[in-house]
Amino acid sequence: MTLTFFRDWLSRVIILCGLLLVTAVTLADEPATPPPADETARENELISNGRRLTFEGARAGEGYFSPDGKQMVFPSEREADNPFLQMYLLDLETGDTQRLSPGIGKTTCAFFHPSGKKLLFSSTHEDPEATAKQQAELEKRKQGTPTGRYAGWDFDDQYEIYELDLATHQFKRLTNSRGYDAEAAYSPDGTQIVFASNRSTYEDTISDKDKEIIAKDPSYMMDLYIMNADGTNVRRLTRERGYDGGPFFSPDGRRICWRHFADDGATAEIRTANTDGSDLCQLTSLGVMSWAPYYHPSGEYLIFTTNKHGFDNFELYLVDVAGEHEPVRVTYTPRFDGLPIFSWDGKTLTWTSSRGGLTGGQIFIGQWNHEKARELLKQAPLRQVPRASTREVSEFSSTFWARRDAGIDSTPVTTDPAIRAEDLRQYIETLASSAMDGRLTGTPGEKMATDYVAAQFQRLGLQPAGDNGTYFQEFSFTAGANLGPENKLSLTIGEPSLTFTIDQDWRPLAFSQTGTYEPAGVIFAGYGIVAPKNEHAETVDAFVDLDVKDKWVLVFRYMPENIKPELRQQWSRYSGLRYKAMLARDKGARGLLIVTGPKAQANEQLVKLAFDAGLSGTSIPCLSISDDLAQKLLDPSGKKLAELQATLDSGEVTKGWVVPGVQLSATVDIQKEEKIGRNVIARLPATESDKSLASVMVGAHVDHLGRGVGSNSMARDDEKGDIHYGADDNASGVAAMIEIAEYLVDQQKHGKLPLQHDVLFAAWSGEELGLLGSAHYVNALTGNNPHAKLQDQIAAYLNMDMVGRLQKEAIINGLNSSTIWGQLIERANTPVGLALTTNEDSIVPTDATSFYLKNVPILSVWTGAHEDYHTPRDTADKINYDGAEKIARFIGLITRALAIDPATPEFVEAPIGKEAGATRANLRAYLGSIPDFAKSDVKGVALSGVTKGAPADKAGLLSGDIIIELAGRKIENIYDYTYAIEALKIDEPVQIVIQRGAETLTLTITPAARE
């Protein structure tokens, strides 16, 4: 079938939503020939009580059930003043029908949200020309002028996807891109939407050949996209020429199905894939027009439409989800049967048909025989085309380098050697896809992301530079805490003792000390807050006149609810659980008991076992207890928990007291969860260079926050547990690094890159947990010698972290690490033209710091903070791809200049600056110490370095020292250290106790002013 002939036929027979709402076929004016009796019987095996459901209008079709099965939404042409389809809601119990769409323009493709409270459909009602198009079509019909299209529908580029709230009848526009955006469906959990669009027709650089085809058929570049249910984080799933459309999620939400037309439009087949576009599988190989697939809710098979039995005779068929058997026929009635949809319980089937001599399609409905369908599919012969040959991967899927049992797939992707925004988009959309699940270090999402980066390195021909001849360098780390089997808590109030259930009555905090603790008394200390006097409040001390030594201290969680805002702000720092635990420990308490209380606004009474990755615990047991358990503790005193909290919440000062006649004992068993993360490292070797020269290195961290576990997420309450996609942080930096690698490989291939240094490329993991991956790399290079330097191995390190949100200026840190940077930056930026802000600071909260501390000159580029930082809203659709391209070109040129220059940049150890993380703590006193967050298994705070000329340097502190005491305060973790620094006075010397190897040293340090 030629392309021209197919297009003409298509305009006569089809098109709507996934592909078809039937028009009158050529045979429509002829009486329908009924099927033979035996074929009718066979149809009735699967569909019983089949009957027509819609009767109004010229045509109707593609009806979708509400989740409760009581309503159906469908498009129909039935308005006198509008020749185009509008959207209607049918009450299946009463038969009442109401129009949902505005009545202006064209509509198509509805789908219910799983809640049943809203639905999707596409519409052109906001098209300024909508009314004029209606009138033009009406005039054509009046004059009998053929349109050559289906009612002017023809992939109108004004179609947008809307969400309709059925209670308020309010519309929310979800897409805003020129092109046909339609054929949308919700995921089973309602969080995602998959849809079809030809927006790339208007966005991409298109060849002249493609333009000629598109002029005749806009569907030629129709692809699948996926986005969040609110319209954010739009990602492209397919990129092949030909029409990809009519997508739906599988019942478990893990895959999608759709139909793909060959690029000549002559045939279409049914496909499925994971929701990120990977693992593409073609289920049919009929060589005809097979389309409109829909999953049965069991997830065992799909139903679809095909014209296998004749050019104008479309019938329904089934195919198993694996595509292992030949499809099974469902309908046998001549003419058109298509667009099948199951009810949510799988017991009913609706479809569009022109059976019975209809001149236009109408909706039919019948009861579905699921067990018979399973039986027929099981009996069907095995598929004649071998399954392996049908797993044809689209251009997008071939860029998705999922883990393979046999190693890394090396299928090429479509990229350009030049650094391009469109190539960056491919990488970022993949890395920030839902399949990567936020790329948390040590999770399957991180492993998938690092596989993906390794495959890009392999595709480009870079040499593996990880461990054991691979691209990977693994490192172990403490990823979390789990409850062990020995947790016990008992309370003695007379006889016998009461025992309580772990995870129901009580739960240890993640930073609690483990061990067995003998019975001890309990002291109530209100909210456990000790805070100094300020302009808004007097000094408060919950421990005044209390001797808590060897006693359990019972305190409320949080702070009093009804205090004034100024006081709330003052006390916020002193109400944290870590701070309360430190106070109890320093006062000699046996342990800390935390109760939420009935007056607190909390979702759960027990504190979650949330582990702060990279941070040590405290040396007393810290237990979260339920309100009921707390009340049992208080019963001997005659006090009521709710009344105590109400009094304290009013701001009334209440002294603590000993709970009489109570003894509490506990065994705390917390098992740390050790996981493996991995870096991805590759090398572009210098073919003619002196191999003794140090390498130039380009890096970016590939990990992110997963679903926001730990303390780094800044998600809103309604976003808790959602995927943190990390498109800017830091899929953007990794994408830029890959583009730079491809650019340099191509330069070398064409003799334009006379390398004098090897170039290393690294995707670090564990950055969000404390620079774990890059710290492991530099420690491995130095043999874990904390005093060793690296410039004889790494000449310079260039870092990209969050380079995807360029607005006005890019920010370059690290100017004070070498004298070379000023001139080199200016020269590299001349052909690029970036607006730049340069900072001298070389101690920055990203992987560059790991190298700077080893005497390696560094530059680190980023495009600034934004409101989506560390939230699920950091999505690929918000990236400034043109800006990211400029930054990649800029860093690529600096890399090139360093790599072809035989000289090694001079390292400059910078004078006094700010220690890492200081801006977060808002500390006034300054020591110049740089904590090593990678060392979570030490008691105290390990240092990865000290700033030259700073108080720590003058006091004699060195990299590798472990601070265990400061100004008389015990230091067990970074929280203790931060609180201790807060109490220091400027220019007043204090003692600092450190562990250096086997020695314990006491030094004197004089804090300086930060500003």
Describe the protein's architecture and organization.
The structure is a single chain. By secondary structure, the protein is α+β, with helices and mostly antiparallel strands. The protein contains 20 helices and 52 strands. Strand 4 (71-77) and strand 5 (86-91) form a beta hairpin. Helix 7 (421-431) crosses helix 13 (727-749), helix 13 crosses helix 17 and helix 15 crosses helix 17 (881-900). Residues 1-32, 147-153, 386-412 and 912-922 have low confidence and may be disordered.
Strand content: 25-35%
**Apparent shape:** globular
Record field, number of beta strands: 52
Number of helices: 20
Largest pleated sheet? 9 strands, mixed
Work out the helicity level. Answer: 10-25%
- Kindly provide the radius of gyration, computed on alpha-carbon positions and rounded to a whole number of angstroms: 34 Å
Given the helix and strand composition, which structural class is it?
alpha+beta
Report, as a whole number of angstroms, the end-to-end distance. 77 Å
Mean pLDDT level: 85
Uncertain segments are 1-32, 147-153, 386-412, 912-922
Protein traits:
alpha+beta; 9-stranded mixed sheet; 8-stranded mixed sheet; 52 strands; globular; disordered N terminus
List the helices and strands and how they pair.
Elements: H1 3-13, H2 37-46, E1 47-52, E2 59-60, E3 64-65, E4 71-77, E5 86-91, E6 97-99, E7 107-112, E8 118-123, H3 130-143, E9 160-165, E10 171-173, E11 181-186, E12 192-197, H4 200-203, H5 208-216, E13 223-228, E14 235-236, E15 244-249, E16 255-261, E17 268-274, E18 281-282, E19 290-295, E20 301-306, E21 315-320, E22 328-329, E23 337-342, E24 348-353, E25 362-368, H6 370-379, H7 421-431, H8 444-460, E26 463-464, E27 472-483, E28 488-492, E29 498-499, E30 506-508, E31 515-524, E32 530-531, E33 540-541, E34 552-556, H9 565-571, H10 577-586, E35 591-595, E36 622-625, H11 627-634, H12 641-649, E37 657-668, E38 670-684, E39 695-701, H13 727-749, E40 759-764, H14 772-781, E41 794-800, E42 810-813, H15 821-829, E43 836-839, H16 848-852, E44 858-862, H17 881-900, H18 918-921, E45 925-926, E46 929-931, E47 941-946, H19 951-955, E48 962-966, E49 969-970, H20 974-982, E50 990-996, E51 999-1005, E52 1008-1009
Parallel strand pairs: 31-34, 34-35, 35-36, 39-40, 39-41, 41-44, 42-43
Antiparallel strand pairs: 1-25, 2-4, 3-4, 4-5, 5-6, 7-8, 8-9, 9-10, 11-12, 12-13, 13-14, 15-16, 16-17, 17-18, 19-20, 20-21, 21-22, 23-24, 24-25, 26-38, 27-38, 28-29, 28-37, 30-36, 31-37, 32-33, 38-40, 42-44, 45-52, 46-47, 47-48, 48-49, 48-50, 50-51
